[in-house]
Specification:
This protein is of the alpha+beta class. The protein folds into two domains: 135 residues, no CATH class; 83 residues, 2-Layer Sandwich (Alpha-Beta Plaits). It is built from seven helices and six strands. Strands 4-5-3-6 form a four-stranded antiparallel beta sheet, with helices on one face. Strands 1-2 form a two-stranded antiparallel ribbon. Helix 1 runs parallel beside helix 4 and helix 3 runs antiparallel to helix 4. It starts with a helix and ends with a strand. 29% of the residues are buried.
Length: 232
């Protein structure tokens, strides 16, 4: 005769499988790195470990196992996060895997309705919030609204580097812009590009245009400009 505890395990694993499949199907549909099978395996694995801890040591054992699941899935999620320069990808996929483990853990300790609720919120986060994210990402970055890194660039001849560095510092100090540092971005036989990184602040584009205009009037300056980029 099938024991009630075995039936409970089957219910836990089946719940984790179905809910993990729903989460993974959405990821697979969008061609993400961790798709259907990965999310199912994460959810089922978390459910199996939680159920094992519950069966052997009771509630205390389940709590201990769940704490290990949380840290263990962190290592798995780190494997799908990629960084190329300032661009980081895979964060949402890693977070989805972590949340899928939570679904499995709920199912593993017999809280199937709670597991379904968590899965519903995960799907909502990955689908319903997408139009809002796309809308925000399409908005042009406004220097007046965004905490950003501002740089003032100056190109000069190699023999004028020291004087150009002092000129760049003095010009920005005159306009009350504190400087983090002045670095050499490129150095060739004919030209050298210096860039002064400003202390994180909200700069006025008109003032930076004025700084650049003043710099370009100096004989030792070949050209000058300023750039802004979002802080990572």
């Amino acid at each position: 005769m099938t024991s009630p505890r075995l039936l409970a395990t089957v219910a836990a694993l089946a719940t984790a499988f179905c809910l993990g499949a729903l989460i993974g199907l959405e990821r697979q549909w969008r061609q993400r790195t961790a798709g259907l099978r990965t999310n199912v395996l994460v959810a089922v694995g978390a459910a199996a470990f939680a159920d094992l801890g519950l069966r052997i040591y009771g509630a205390e054992g389940a709590t201990r196992i769940v704490s290990y699941i949380v840290s263990g899935i962190g290592f798995l999620g780190a494997g799908v996060i990629m960084k190329e320069g300032a661009q980081v990808t895979g964060l949402n996929t890693a977070a989805t895997l972590w949340a899928s483990a939570a679904v499995g853990a709920f199912a593993g300790v017999g809280l199937e309705l709670e597991a379904a609720l968590v899965a519903a919120f995960i799907l909502a986060g990955n689908t319903l919030l997408r139009p809002i994210v796309n809308f925000v990402n399409r908005r042009p970055m406004s220097p007046g609204e965004t905490e950003a890194l501002y740089r003032v660039h100056l190109i000069c001849r190699p023999k004028d580097v020291a004087e150009a560095r002092d000129l760049l510092f003095d010009e920005l100090e005159t306009h009350h812009y504190p400087i983090q540092d002045i670095e050499t971005l490129s150095e060739g036989e004919d030209l050298v590009e210096l860039a002064a990184a400003l202390v994180s602040t909200t700069a006025d584009p008109k003032e930076l245009d004025l700084v650049v205009s003043h710099l370009e009037r100096r004989p030792l300056v070949v050209s000058a400009t300023w750039t802004v980029s979002a802080l990572s």
